[in-house]
Amino acid sequence: MSLLKILMKEVGLSQRALARGLSLSPAAVNEIVNRDNWPKSLDGKKLQANIRKQLREAGASAGRVAALFRSPVKRKPSAPAEDKEDSMLLARQELFPETKRHFGLVRNPFGEVTGPEEVFLSADIRYVREAMFLTARKGGFVAVIGESGSGKSTLRKELVDRINREKQAVHIIEPYVLAMEDNDKTGKTLKAQHLAEAVLATVAPSEALKSSPEARFRQLHRVLRDSANAGAAHCLIIEEAHGLPVTTLKHLKRFLELEDGFRKLLSIILLGQPELKHKLSESNAQVREVVQRCEKIELRPMNGSLPEYIKFRFARVEADSEKIITADAVEALRSKLTGATSRSGVNDSVSLVYPLAVGNLVVAAMNLAANVGSPQVTPEIVAEV
To answer: What are 127-140's pLDDT values in tens digits?
Structure first.
């Protein structure tokens, strides 16, 4: 539903009455209201001015009317079928100061997570969280796979924070992945020697690195064994792991084999986008030995817990979500972030109901609601974002 139609509904102006006031056919007005399809034979600016006049005479406020028709008159293009998934995503949205005043908010409910109390834990997210925590403390090899904005980095931060809060004797090793690519033509590959250097720099920062690879890996084994004998565990966390070259993925098996008797000395957590799932496919013979030792965990969309997530985020800024966004608008959000087919062309549904996409869409809808003076985000507002 267009903003024009929303305002007409609020003031009780029917399409037939608007058509009479504009001296247009009901069919032409229907095209304008429902399809944003304007008659080519008429001056668009004059027609818009006449519509504003009709709305003001019907009782619409000047501020509400002024918010209409800020875009040029044009026919809305239909999104190509192959771009359906991309069209569901918005660029990063900021909550405008006037929007905060409109809804009585001090902070953006969907701003960056700044503490463990702001981490939303659905049943699925809680499972991934506990799997990561158990791997860090007790050993293992897991790959957490999720779309961009699904919450992987937030869970990593929460894991590190939790280990510190609970004073767990775990060394978290995080190699720098800036400019990492899976080949040296487009960036820098992360190699096994870089991982070894990261482990040594974290566990034994005062030790000078051995010059030869053989001596360095013997040094690595010794340092990990001595640290484990002192009661510590060690967890290697690699973000953006979908950018790891296949060679390095194969070498991860060697890191897992660093042992002291039956005791594993290093656990591994990979965090990556869906491309990582393809790299760790059982059909990929190059990494078969790694795949057999790796548990793949997917961060699924929040389809079932979307209302709880929105309620949680507003509660973090001491606001009641039900006063700001209607229940049917939440369903409209879910629908808008769910497409008919996936980018790969597989005949299934694709859902982008992840924290980042949800937050951007809600913020954009709130900005629009404040702009048109609506007291709540409604399905009609969501449809216009």
So the answer is: 999 999 999 999 99
